[in-house]
């Protein structure tokens, strides 16, 4: 088999990893995915993708490593849900519990895709993570470099994320 060509067996997991990377970037540049309206459509799309991956991918056993990861996520989601009892903002606590479940689903999809393709999938996952970090850092640096008033990103000595601020008006390559 030609190492440069993708087989029919490797296309679905590669597409899964690409969709996860793209959705991560989409969430990053959509107000940091703070509001549920920003991340809920991505969660629904991931929830639709998960059964497809389960039905078409290879079977898997629950190893000690996988059980530990699953237990940690369930513990985090449970703790966040329990925090509803004392939270000052019950809505925020509930949203954080939901977001934790979204992270669990994302990890499940990524690990399933990697398991499907073994070492090559791990290389794709690492490349996707590094590419997402590079794109995010490049946009932040570009926005900061093109802005005339950097002090607008500071409030009380804290730096606001440059991703959530609109780019300066008239910046080349940016739409206002």
What can you tell me about this protein's structure?
- The structure is a single chain.
- The protein has 176 residues and is an all-alpha fold.
- The chain has one domain.
- A two-stranded antiparallel sheet has the order 1-2.
- The termini are far apart.
Question: What can be said about this structure in brief?
Answer:
By secondary structure, this protein is mainly alpha-helical. The chain has five helices and two strands; from the N terminus they run H-H-H-H-H-E-E.
Q: Could you outline the blueprint of secondary structure elements for this entry?
A:
Layout: H1 11-28, H2 36-56, H3 64-82, H4 90-117, H5 119-146, E1 154-155, E2 158-159
Antiparallel strand pairs: 1-2
Q: Keywords, please?
A:
176 residues; two-stranded antiparallel ribbon; 2 strands
